[in-house]
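Model it.
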Amino acid sequence: MIEPNRKGEIWVFAEQEDGALCDVSLELCGKARELADELKVPMAAVLPGWNVRELSYRLIALGADKVYYVHDTRLEHYRTLPYSRVMCELIAKHKPQIVLYGATPLGRDLAPRIASEMRAGLTADCTDLSIGDYTESKTKKVHKDLLLQIRPAFGGNIIATIINHDRWPQMATVREGVMCMGDGDPRRSGEIIEEKIEFSDFDLAVKLIERHREERKINLKAARTIVAGGAGVANKENFQLIHDLAGAIGGAVGASRAAVDGGWIGKEHQVGQTGTTVRPALYIACGISGAVQHRAGMEESAKIIAINWDKEAPIFSVAHFGIVGDLQTVIPMMIKAIRERA
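Modeled.
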């Protein structure tokens, strides 16, 4: 366990694959910069890999004062044990007060192992981060300037604020898309510090024989227009209406968890707390009630149109325009009007 270090840096684990930084790591740089400025401490990124030093400049442009670069052929592709060795060694050496990871498959594998090794706390799937104080209820002792780790809990019925005042570093994973990615300033200067890590035979026990990557079929984050269907679509056959409307306006197809769980569309189309967080110019929610888990993933869309037969549906609370009606009637009318104007 590392004792709290009030002057410790704010770190971002810079996830990269095949020489490209993961979007969530770039998004986290902006948030980490904000936290570091509030605490008046440096912000740094940790970049393990092979021949990826040039990525350091992008991290610096987005706010990093330092980049701890670990250059080793054995880090060319992600393996849990070598990467956790890198992070644990560097955390023990430099004693950061906060370490942030993307809630990607890689981050969800790596962060818990590091938390276990360092005997530190870890909050998963945060939707917001801030700095604040905490007062112990019994002793009335005040802990100042802690990381407030905010995430939905109990199935999204409450928003929990989690703190860790005694076991540091304070660590959290953050969902992709919940933080805004800044443009960065290529004129920023920062320090690239090359670190050397010694690996044991145990660290290298797992050998990578072959890699098979399935290309992403849809990129909801980049879509300017999304038409999403939910439980109100009723069945897989009716879900074709969602595809038809998306095709008519040149949009991508999204879905609520209920539609995905019903087997009407693949998981890669899911929007929400357990899916993708999106901010399109236009989001059309069809037959989606608007549970907090779904709203968390789309409520920052520039314009939201909701179609639902239930005028009391929560989705209308975030919609800019609402249509109360049967989507099987409304959507064909919309498609007809769109095609007539084309």
